[in-house]
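Question:
When you can, review this sequence-structure pair and walk me through the tokens.
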Amino acid sequence: MFYPTDDPVADYDRYDAEQAALDELLPVCSDCGERIEDEFCYDFNGTILCEDCLRRSYRRQTTDLMG
């Protein structure tokens, strides 16, 4: 938890360090390698994907699969 002091530079540095530590906890997309900051991600038997990569890799037009 963040408690401000009389030193705004030190406060920002501490806040920034706390945010960076929290970012390290975010899952990493197996396809693009970016940390997933969205509310949801997709897990296919241990393969974690962000929504953009899921759409890019797996989304198809229904009509393309007919026939």
Summary: The longest helix spans residues 8-23.
